[in-house]
Amino acid sequence: MRNRRSARQLPAKRQGRPIGARAAFTLLETLLAVTIFSVAIVALIEAIASNTRMQALLESQSRAVALAQNIMEEIEYVSNLQTGSDGGDFEGDDSGFSWASETADTEILNLCEVRVAVSWKQGDAQRDYQLATYLRKTDSETSVGLGTETYGSSSNSTSYLPSY
User: pLDDT of 10-60, one tens digit each?
Assistant: First the structure.
């Protein structure tokens, strides 16, 4: 029997672990992995929230630009260009936006500075967009470009370009 026992090999001792120990994560390794995962998830959620806030701001700014351009065109082509100020609130889908315009004479004869501001509240902040241009007052028919397009014959119509 002795020969049989010597022929049989004894199990070798594994390095670092006692014989018969199972391979598993320790509590410290598990806590460290959960902490790293939690920090990564919080950073990802914060990045998504920041992206959503920025997208909402950009959409509001784009809408404010379009509204300011519409008011400027209305001042230029529809109303008589007179020195003064005006304002109001938009209705419907744009009910959160308000506008103000100011028209002032300049040192140059028949040239007015026109400023339009559109404001809105986003979150806790008051936001605004301003647009300014110079328009010419005329007493006769106003032509835009090379005189091929006429935009009316009112006594105070305006144009970006001089008449030819």
Answer: 555 556 666 666 677 788 999 999 999 999 999 999 999 999 999 999 999
Distance CA 46, CA 53 (A): 11
- Sheet containing strand 158-159, edge to edge, reads 84-89, 97-105, 111-122, 125-137, 158-159
- pLDDT digits 0-9 by tens, 116-158: 999 999 888 999 999 999 998 876 434 333 222 223 323 333 3
Domains and CATH numbers, the chain: 46-159 (3.30.1300.30)
Asked if 159 contacts 134 with a C-beta cutoff of 8 angstroms, the reply is no
